[in-house]
Design goal:
Layout (H helix, E strand, L loop, with lengths): L1 H63 L5 H20 L7 H14 L30
């Protein structure tokens, strides 16, 4: 009976070694998958970071064109986006106070030494409009 017990022990030991080898192989495979996931995540993060740095560099250069004045650049972008729409919508009110803002923007782009935007006083209600078709600026 000792021979049978030794044989069963040897079989159990062999099966245990086999399960251990399979578990070690699975562990190694899992470690490799984790490393691949981490590498992929790092690569994706690097791509995003490089894209953000490139975009920030573009913004930095654009602001630098306005002597580092971010407010001036923001004003330029706003005027640039809005100006064409107002020219089309308000074509017959070119002398309106709102369009004077855009005239200032155009003058500032052509003459960097231009001062503050022109101030407009309310129109004299007794004076007739200079252009009979342009009554929008005279309406209270």
């Amino acid at each position: 009976m000792t021979t049978e017990a030794m044989r069963q022990q040897e079989v159990a030991l062999t099966e245990a070694r086999q399960r251990k080898s399979v578990a070690e192989f699975a562990l190694k495979a899992t470690e490799d998958r984790v490393a691949a996931i981490l590498a992929r995540g790092k690569a994706e993060a690097d791509v995003i970071q490089f894209g953000n740095e490139a975009e920030a560099s573009g913004w930095r250069n654009a602001v630098a064109a306005f002597d580092g004045d971010g407010n001036a650049y923001a004003q330029y972008v706003m005027f640039d986006k809005l100006a064409s729409a107002y020219r089309q919508i308000m074509i017959n009110t070119a002398d309106s106070p709102l369009m004077k803002i855009f005239e200032f923007a155009a003058n500032a782009n052509n003459n960097p030494d231009a001062g503050a935007p022109p101030t407009t006083s309310p129109p004299d209600s007794a004076a007739p409009p200079s252009n009979p078709t342009d009554t929008a600026a005279k309406v209270p």
